Each structure stands twice: as C-alpha cells, then as structure tokens.
Amino acid sequence: MTKSVRVRVRSVAYSCDGEQVFADDGSVRPDVIRYSTDGTFSDDDGSCALTVFEPDELGVGENSVTVISYNRSDKKSLTVTRRGNLSYSMPIDTRFSSAECVMSYLGQTMTVSVWTKKLHNTLRDGTGAILCEYAITAGGVKVETVRLFIEVSDNA
C-alpha cells in the first residue's frame, strides 16, 4: 500500500551547552525549524517508509528527499536517509548507545556518532507521528542535540 500524505515537521536543535546552534558564518541558525510538505507513506508487509519532499527554502538543496524507514513490528529503531546536497543514512535505535553515520555535504564527508535518547513511533497506515531525540558527536565531542517531531495525516 502506498498513499499520498501531508507531513508537518518540527525540529529543535541545541548546541552542546543547550543554547542555539551557530552556523559556520557566525549567524544564529534558528533553533526551531517548522514546515509542512507533501510526502508518501508505503507499507509493504510491515516494511514501512515515509518519504518527505523537503522545501527548497530549508537550504539543504533543491530536490532534497528524506526517507524514514522502519519495520512496523520494531518500536525501537528506524533509519533516516536524506538525499540532496546534504546526504546521510542515520540510524535511530534505542537498543544501542550509539551508531555511526557518514554525512556528505557537497562532496565533503564526515563520520559522526548518533546517540539515540528517545524514540516514539505511532505512524501506522499513513497517519500518526514520530518523536525522536538524539545527540550527534564528532570526534568524541558533542555537537548538538536534536528533538524531531513529525506528524503525518491524510493528504486532503
């Protein structure tokens, strides 16, 4: 089963000291990102995927697509895969203390560790929500903590 859905995303990023995150140019990156967009939800015998078409205004490049994939019977993990100027496949898994993630931005790569703090997934049959909180470290140094809330509804 595959169907069109409406996706609302709210992401809050904090630096290691709990303050807003600063961009490389010294400007303050908004600590809260909110947007709504179209997407698709598919469920193939319990193998589920939410595909989100990210607005160009987010600044991650034109035609950026994020796919959140998981198994319906597994409440403890999912994978976030983004394709665009910023690309990665990030495991969110509460069973392990951390997992490696290779990120690529415009040809430059960096390996980070993802420390899952919380995951709650009620997304079924194309409606519901995903809440996750995770920290990212690079070279053993905590870079940021992210709280991500994704709400999915029928595309009316």
Task: Report on the architecture of this protein.
The structure is a single chain. This protein has no helices and ten strands. The chain has a single domain, classed as Calycin beta-barrel core domain (Lipocalin, Beta Barrel). The chain has 156 residues and is mainly beta. Strands 1-2-3-4-5-6-7-8-9-10 form a ten-stranded antiparallel barrel.
Which structural class do the helices and strands define?
Answer: mainly beta
Give me the strand/helix succession. EEEEEEEEEE
Number of domains: 1
CATH superfamily assignment? Answer: Calycin beta-barrel core domain
**What name does the CATH topology carry?**
Lipocalin
In short:
The protein has strands at residues 2-15, 32-44, 47-53, 65-71, 77-83, 86-93, 99-105, 108-121, 128-138, 141-154. It is mostly beta strands and 156 residues long. A hairpin with a 6-residue loop joins strand 8 (108-121) and strand 9.
List the main descriptive attributes of the protein structure presented here.
156 residues, mainly beta, Lipocalin, ten-stranded antiparallel beta barrel, 0% helix, 65% strand
